[in-house]
Amino acid sequence: MPKRIVSPQILIQTIEMKHKILYVLPLILVSIMTYSQDKVTLSGTITDGESNETLIGVNVYFPDAMAGTTTNEYGFFSITLPKGDYTLNVSYLGYTTIQERISLVQNIRKDYVLAPESNALDEVVVTSDQPQTNIRKPEMSVSKLSINTIKKMPAMMGEVDVLKSLLQVPGVTNAQEGASGFNVRGGSVDGNLVLLDEAVVYNTSHLFGFFSVFNSDVIKDMKLYKGGIPANFGGRISSVLDIYQKEGNNKEFHMSGGIGLIASRLLVEGPIQKDRSSFVVAGRSSYIHLLLQLADEPNSLYFYDLNAKLNYKLNDNNNIFLSGYFGKDYMDFNKSLINTYGNSLFNLRWNHIFSDKLFSNASAIYSVYDYGIKVKFAGVDWTSQINNYNFKYDFKHYLSSKFVLDYGVNSIYYQFNPGTLKPFGENSSVNPDQLAKKYAFENALYISADHRLSEKFALTYGLRYSNFMRLGEEEVFTYANNRPLLFNQEFQVYEEASSNGSLYYGKNKKIAGFNNFEPRLSMAYSLDDNQSIKASYNRMSQYIHLISNTASATPLDVWAPSDQYLKPEILDQVALGYFRNLKQGDYSLEMEAFYKTVKNKADYIDGADLIAKESIERVLLNGEARSYGLELMARKNTGKLTGWLSYTLSKAEQRTPGRDANEPGINNGDWYRANYDKLHNLSLTASYELTPKWSFGGIFTYQSGKAATFPNGKYQYNGITVPSYGTRNGSSLSAYHHLDLSATYTPKPEKTKGWRGE
Predict the structure, then answer these.
(1) Residue 136 forms part of a structural domain
(2) Strands, E assignment, 529-586
């Protein structure tokens, strides 16, 4: 495929825009840097004592000063305090707490190494100051599950699944069992921004949703934002799933893996140069196709994926990371229907510490998702693809113990190939064809502040500016009255309009452009050390869309950029929550209510055919969506029996009125249930440690039936029976529930070296 280069004019405009903002940033910094000379800064990096991996979210807390911070995504922390002597606590779940007396008389750079606890229940130990950090931090609508916790949850055929574990937290559901993707607070699958080491993952499933693309062995940290989304994230309107891979053990060589019923996996990690550089490589593959061959079955299906990461510590202030992911699915049904799809990701990152208060990360990212299908009886070989080239530069400025700034820039260049058609088979009558390729350029600038106003009141507020340009080279159809979709008054149905001409846009010429400001605000008010009230608001814009009229994402879906017809979706969401820790953190309670609205929600006319569609605007209407609900989560954090109960009561609806008084729109312009609307969603997750050798897990799930459209009658026409349908999604499937159980036996739990198994 020939590479498309953005024109110099567009690059110059973008650079000038960024420079204007960067000129303003120093003025903002100067206005808020009003410190006295008696303040000093403690900064450093915190790592795992066994592997030397950096640790994310470690609590660095000074109880004397009632001040603290946490490590960022690369294990770095910085905190500024008045000169003096303090007691310092460094704590992290599953690790031994460090407590020391430290004298701060000048700026100090000090790294800490945490030793893993030998306690077999490390993932359910709650340290004394962890509840305090959760209560006081203005972070809400965020779900975190440790990998240790996920591995104790029952999994299909023993294959631990990161995405399936997210379905056990409030506000997250899926279209149906075996469906790919997930839905958050009534949002569609394409509204989720899924990141693996900052690179976008467009399809998160293997084998149509039965397994996810994330190998749990190589996952280091995972965080799901359902609301109150920080300003550094953008481009999607439902959620952000931020996942980081391990960096590799730079002290010792290690191997781990597993042999399963349908798939096996292997991870290898170790130092390249001890204490300075390391690598990690993890592979996974299924062998269902081999079992089918043994059964003399003509069908075949399998998947594989490979994770790799290298890191090198240049010096105390500079680190380089190179990470990648490669995955593929292959399904062959008796050579009559062949379906393939997969993701490939690359990311080169540079961490730089400018000073004890300023940390930066620059990333150059390439991501591609390709998908295709071959159908023998139709003689069709169809492939599609989306590529993006992404550059981002983020800064974290620790101005004081009460004020931290995040700011940065982001640019993404998109290449969309909606479809390449070729003949398949000797008798195919299909003529080769190439649907018009599409190009786009998305830019963003953001600034955000974490501000602790008092011991009880804390804020996170910020602003993101996003710009999107749909670019040529492309020939764009024009229509009479600028309406690609017509309404037939006689038959009361929508029909595709015929083009009355076209406009040609040359290479990198702007076809359409959009600009949006996206404010973000989160706040927390602590009633006392154990309970708080939190609220958040965020606006987000989504410029690329999954072209699908099915209930869940499939590998055949096509991504398309916004243009003059397919408008960017704009979300506004508010949330209010109450959070409480009981019995010194042994139990915790979280309650949240949310309300969200979406403008320009794409909707499709009845009977729309979206596969290999040259002009999607001919079957498209723009409407609106809304969802609201109440989420509850109760946890038991310590003891032999741990787990949580989550419950969501919610409603998700769409409305697409007519463009004028002569059109009814979809469903007569009334609100109707979204495809992913489920009134009740209940999940009970538990883990029980009977002995060091035996542990048990269980999950019970109950969900209301999803929306569906069923015929309400039928009639005969020329001897043909034709079904008659009522309102869209006016019916519902039956309620759904299941119970999963697991038992784990560890023969030698006390063994820490050599071969171990379970």
Answers:
(1) no
(2) 531-542, 544-547, 558-561, 569-582
**Residue where a domain terminates, one of 59, 94, 126:** 126
Q: Strand 39-48 relative to strand 112-114: parallel, antiparallel, unpaired?
A: parallel
- CATH assignment at residue 40: 2.60.40.1120
Q: Which domain holds residue 636?
A: 142-745
Same domain membership, residue 620 and residue 518: yes
Distance CA 373, CA 611 (A): 11
* pLDDT tens per residue across span 222-273: 999 999 999 999 999 999 999 999 999 988 898 988 888 888 899 999 999 9
pLDDT of residue 27: 45
Distance in angstroms (rounded) separating the CA atoms of residues 467 and 445: 9
Q: Return the amino acid letter for 734.
A: S
Return the pLDDT at 21. Answer: 44
The region that residue 231 occupies, defined by phi over 0 for left and psi between -120 and 50 for alpha, beta otherwise, is alpha
Of the three residues 126, 157, 181, the one that is the final residue of a domain is: 126
- Residues 190 and 107 reside in one and the same domain: no
Q: Are 546 and 561 in contact (CB under 8 A)?
A: no
> Is residue 755 a part of any domain in this protein?
no
Strand partners, 694: 745
| pLDDT confidence of residue 123 | 41
Shared-domain flag, residues 161 and 118: no
Both tokens assigned to 275: 């204490």
C-alpha span between 72 and 517 (Å, rounded): 26
* 674 plus 640 within the same structural domain: yes
Separation of alpha carbons 226 and 533, rounded Å: 17
Give the per-residue pLDDT at 157: 67
Please give the tally of structural domains in the chain: 2
**Does any domain span residue 470?**
yes
DSSP 595-654: EEEEEEEEEE-TT---TT-S-GGGGEEEEEEEEEEEEEEEEE-SSSEEEEEEEEEEEEEE
Q: What is the pLDDT of residue 412?
A: 96
Same domain, 80 and 12: yes
The pTM score is 0.89
- Please provide the DSSP assignment of 208-274 as one string: GGTEES--GGGEEEEEEESSS--TT--S-SSEEEEEEE----SSS-EEEEEE-SSEEEEEEEEEEET
Q: Which two tokens stand for residue 414?
A: 């998109």
Q: Does residue 593 share a domain with residue 527?
A: yes
Extract the residue ranges of the chain whose pLDDT is less than 50.
1-8, 10-12, 14-36, 119-133
752 domain-assigned: no
Read off the CATH number of the domain in which 156 is found.
Answer: 2.40.170.20
Distance (Å, whole) CA 110 – CA 103: 12
Tell me the CA distances in angstroms from 148 to 120, 217, 695, one per residue in order.
11, 10, 13
- CA–CA separation, 587 and 580 (whole Å): 9
Burial class (CB in 10 A: 0-12, 13-18, 19+), 697: buried
Question: What CA–CA distances, in Å, run from 134 to 127, 403, 589?
Answer: 12, 18, 12
Contact 625, 542 (CB under 8 A): no
| Same domain? 104 vs 238 | no
Name 190's Cβ contacts closer than 8 Å, sequence gap at least 6.
236, 542, 544, 545, 546, 548, 553, 559
Collect all residues with Cβ–Cβ distance below 8 Å to 698 and sequence separation of at least 6. Answer: 154, 684, 685, 686, 739, 740, 741, 742
Q: Which amino acid is at 219?
A: I
List phi, psi (to 5°) of 463.
-145, 135
DSSP string over 450-506: EEE-SSSEEEEEEEEEEEEEEE-SEEEEE-GGG-SEEEETTTTEEEEPPP-EEEEE-
Verify that 115 and 167 share a domain, yes or no.
no
